[in-house]
Amino acid sequence: MANIYDGMTKTAIKTLQDELKIQWTFTSNAIEGNTISLGETAFIIEQGLTVKGKSIAEHNEVLGHSRAIDIIYKFLDKNTLIKEDIFELHTAVQTNIVIDSESPIGKYKVVENGRYILLHDNKRKYYPYPNPLYIKYLMDIWFSEFEDISKQEISVEESILRYTRCHIGFTSIHPFFDGNGRLARLIANIYMLKNSYLPIIISNESRDIYIKLLSAYNLKASNLDNNSKEIIETNEEFQALYEFFKSEYKNSQTLLDEIKG
Questions:
Q1: Does the chain have fewer CB atoms within 10 Å around its N or its C terminus?
Q2: Would residue 32 count as lying in a domain?
Q3: Which has the closest alpha carbon to 129: 141, 114, 107?
Q4: What is the pLDDT, as a whole number, of residue 255?
Q5: Does residue 5 lie within any of the structural domains?
Q6: Tens-digit pLDDT profile for residues 26-57
Q7: Which residues contact 77 (CB under 8 A, 6 or more apart)?
Q8: What is the pTM of this model?
Q9: HSE on the CB side for 118, CA within 13 Å?
């Protein structure tokens, strides 16, 4: 299998990876409502300085996500993903200073949570995430499929399919009180990077489409509990997300082409 970095110097590879980190951090945080721009994200990561008019919380989200990407690259030396690895990532992306017993960092959630989903008739429906009592059981099912992060000789399409399953499985369980989306977009990319592909970076312009596709899947899929045998349903909504992630892969490919060009 050809390496995407073939023909590139070490300097060019580092330039690409640095830019991927900036783009990945900016877009993933923007999806969650962070208002720091792409240029400001680059400034914070590269210079380690603050941007006037932006909150400390938003700055910390940039630095936290940047650290989490470094952790993801560290995981590439492993062949097995364990619970403590997930907790380490959660600690990186959660930058709250105040300790709250109902919002533990680096541990599974302890209180019920959910969100409102906008329906086609412009009404909103409350969607509850799985009860905290079921999280360990559901995550054990998740780990049974995704703990193996060893390199495999598979195509980019097969890697994106694995990304899709990992991402949807994790967000459906929603094991933490917060940070689940950022974690899903980080963890699922292990399978892209480990198999010598670029990470999937969801563009800021595609944010609304991404949220709508995830919401459509959530509304269609069965609720997860301690009787669930599977955590992922390969329905039409799943297929739509897979096709979406395939299309978003071009964002990283464009960066690679620019540097190679």
A1: C
A2: yes
A3: 114
A4: 95
A5: no
A6: 999 999 999 999 999 999 999 988 899 999 99
A7: none
A8: 0.94
A9: 6
